[in-house]
Specification:
The chain has about 350 residues and is mainly alpha-helical. Helix content is about 80%, strand content about 0%. The chain has 13 helices and no strands.
């Protein structure tokens, strides 16, 4: 690889690390919000807990999600410099979207932003034929490529809502006749469910950065096949953990206090539901939005108890962010491609 290409690959990898960091502080709210809102932990203690288990997730949780994301893009026939520029534009578009929504306090999806950035940059930089859309496999009943990513991204919030509703109803029924002291037990139990959610989050979200770094190495000729190196796992785990411990406190207010008034029971149920959905998707190899799974689980918990007390206007704002993130990030990636094309 020439010095120019090596520099471009290095800068792209740095951009991915920055994306992982923004992913972490953007998604910290998902795990911290319920702990803080239900007074199970202080913000500082909650950040330490979720940071530690977020780091363990990608170290232990395998690479199924990374393999899925790495398989949606095929830039082997594109010149290396162009391919690396496309990846860089996709990452910059996703980072820009994360920062904008963080400033607005909107719990949008880093996963949606990354996929949107990839699709936008690849289509404008190389053409739609360099994406594995998965349509052919879908006819035979298989989920692969972009289709698999979209299905898991868009169905996981609905599953989170349903699971949250069912878990809240079940636990409330089992808790009939419990005294006020049960709240203390539930607060402590949230330490376990929050740790499980953080582990699931690390397992799923860190693998997205791992996939892109490995793709850069593959395109640059540093690897012969797509296989995530150990150092890439550690770098991605570290960057997303540092972002998580920094915390997206603007979004904590939205998730923890803006959807439903959370008490210990609700926090426990929402965390348990979210952890199950996110970890299940990770085993399936499907990239999901932890942000939207947690938010929808909270809505399900609230709807199971007092539907009228759920702030559905705030839920509508989250749903709007859910719908516009992919096209918004795609447009930002297209803009980044235009800038990089004429400056590199």
């Amino acid at each position: 690889m020439s010095e120019t290409l090596l520099l471009l690959a290095g800068l792209t990898i740095v951009a991915v690390v920055i994306f992982d960091f923004t992913n972490g502080f953007h998604d910290a709210s998902n795990m911290v919000a319920t702990l803080v809102a239900s007074r199970a932990m202080t913000p500082g203690s909650a950040a330490l807990l979720v940071g530690g288990f977020t780091f363990l997730g990608p170290i232990i949780g395998g690479t199924a999600v990374a393999d899925t994301l790495g398989g949606i893009v095929d830039l082997g026939a594109v010149p290396v410099a162009t391919a690396l520029t496309i990846i860089a534009a996709a990452i910059l578009g996703a980072i820009a979207w994360n920062i904008v929504t963080w400033r607005l306090g909107l719990p949008s999806s880093s996963s949606h932003a990354l996929v949107g950035g990839l699709v936008g940059a690849v289509v404008v930089g190389a053409g739609g034929q360099d994406l594995d859309w998965g349509f052919t496999a879908l006819r035979s009943g298989s989920l692969v490529g972009v289709t698999k990513v979209l299905v898991t991204l868009f169905t996981s919030p609905l599953i989170g809502l349903t699971v949250g509703f069912c878990v809240q109803r079940l636990i409330a029924w089992l808790r009939q006749g419990a005294t006020v002291e049960a709240n203390r037990t539930l607060r402590r139990a949230q330490w376990i469910t929050a740790a499980a959610l953080a582990f699931a989050h690390g397992t799923n979200d860190a693998q997205k950065g791992m996939a892109i770094i490995t793709l850069v190495l593959l395109l640059g000729g540093a690897m012969d096949s797509f296989a995530v190196p150990t150092w890439v796992i550690i770098v991605s785990a570290t960057s997303i953990t540092l972002g998580t411990m920094t915390g997206g406190w603007r979004i904590v207010r939205t998730v923890g206090f803006g959807i439903y008034r959370l008490r210990p029971l609700h926090g426990f149920d929402a965390q348990l539901s979210s952890a199950a959905v996110v970890f299940g998707a990770s085993l399936f190899g499907g990239p999901v939005s932890t942000t939207h799974v947690v938010s929808s689980a909270i809505m399900g918990v609230g709807a199971a108890e007092r539907p009228r007390s759920v702030r559905w206007t705030r839920a509508a704002e989250i749903a709007l962010a859910w719908l516009v993130t992919m096209p918004g990030a795609a447009l930002l990636a297209v803009a980044a491609w235009g800038v990089l094309r004429f400056t590199l």
